[in-house]
Amino acid sequence: MTSVVFWVGVLTLVGFYGILAMILNMEGGWGGMWDLGTAGLLAVASYFFVIVTLDDAMLGTRFAPGWPLWLAWPASAVFTGIVAFLVSLPALRLRREYFLITTFAFAEIIRQLIVVQDDLTRGVIGFSGLDRPFDDVVTGRDYNYVLLGLVAIGVVVVFLITRVVARSSFGLLLRAARDNEALALSLGRKVNRMRRETFVLAGVLIGAVAPLYLWYIRAVTPQLFAPAVTFTAWSALVLGGLGSIAGPILGAFLLIVFTEAVGLVDWSPDQANLATALEPFLVGMLLIVVLRVRPQGLLGERGAFRRATRRDRSDDATEPPANDALPAPAMSTPRSG
Amino acid sequence: MELVVQSVAKHFGGVAALDDVSLRASQGAITALIGPNGAGKTTLFNAMTGFAKADKGTIHFGDVRLDRLTPWQVARHGVIRTFQTPVGFPSLTVLENMFAAGAPHAAASVASVLRFRAMRAEARTSADRAKQLLRELQLWDLRDRYVDELSTGDRKLLEFARQLMMHPRVLLLDEPAAGVAPSYVDRLAEVIRSLRTERGISCVVIDHNLAFIMQIADHIHVLDRGRLIASGTPKEIADNADVMRIYVGSSAVAS
Predict the structure, then answer these.
(1) Does the distance separating the beta carbons of A190 and B100 come in below 8 Å?
(2) What are the residue ranges spanned by the domains of chain A?
(3) Hey, which of A209, A287, B178, B189 has its CA 20 to 30 A from A89?
(4) A320: left (phi over 0), alpha (psi -120 to 50) or beta
(5) What is the ipTM score, two decimals?
């Protein structure tokens, strides 16, 4: 019933959402910025990449510079970083749910702009049959393995970047400012600058991974950047553990594999509507069950960083291993970040 | 250096939180700020540290005009405050709280992660200092605990330890003794006195615990409804019938 190629595709999607969840984790988990604008930045990056790589063969637009891949890919990262910076100017004046609403509104504005600016973006039609690297070398179904490899490299790179940030003094200050902004300010920390840099770094990373998404889908249309993309990445993050280091990948794996497995069930045609409705319902149930048992997600921030601090002190041999014998006090209230 | 507040006023709507307040806190002294709830003590701290903008008046620390600066700029001039509720960084450990204060300012940029060698060297220095301060304040055994697992007394002590990582020149302490077990209050008093004698740090202290204030302060300013109603040594204030009536009267009702 299922083929290897199908699961290769699923894993590619897992990797892609894992990357988005890791980026959101840096912003939302450690930085305390509840960003719902991911799909917007992804759209900016995707359209930028597709438009600058267009050559004249493509129809219906007035702008086809035909940049080569080596130029278009980094340019897409830089351009998305610049857009993220511009978005951060109004958005970072706000906190928490107000920040969330602003970034969400930005993503929707981008999507509407794409529909309206049809001489540049081809409106609702978008672009399809995109060229992909190595397309002429590896053909047909085998290309899925190339894609999986590229996404796997992306996962590793983004994982390493976020891990280095998390374990650095910068990451510590970012988490401190999330916990208590007034206190961080009273320690002389430029909280706004730290958050802006994190937000821009997230934009750059989204810009860098967008081409992978395009090659997977092989098309660009406004519907591809619906809020569902952002919500799926957030669900993966919350499921895996907001603030943890490996949680986003684990969450993306469980969520995407679960969703795709639900889709594999053979339904009779008259039940197809029911099946479509059942999928988000089951995903919702999965979230509720996991968060009921583990409110902090499958992996927590505390576990991830406790190990890090222990290891850094391992050279301090004169000290007895303090508090290891003490039972950790039970958390009385769930911490939702 | 002296902290000088001159004719500072701050209004919230029609309420005068601060009404033409002028006072000074001399270098190396422990200056107390007392008064009933709503007298404007915390508002004055906020105005001194950039968390609130005064409507009029000036606040100087030496030659630096603090009332025009943002909170992080004030902190970098060595004027370090604490907060009434010792929340700290609740989801960080005690040691991480210390590092959050001890990390160099360059670390507040994402670019600093690329200079990890330099950052690691800085971290070692700050770790030594953190260790020393935690030992002095008897918090070392709690270093791997999360702040939201600590007692209020320990959090207050951590508040000191953390702010001392910043090498303050003036510490503004907002109700250090509030909510602290009586046995801790003497320890706090001792810590505050040692800040001055051993480190030469000036302190400005807000508190409602008069016994505590009388025990530590060199000089006391009394605020009531946004106005400075008296200034003097602890003895002068204790002998001031007006102050005792206004302050102790309303405070006795409140507690």
Answers:
(1) no
(2) 4-293
(3) A209
(4) beta
(5) 0.90
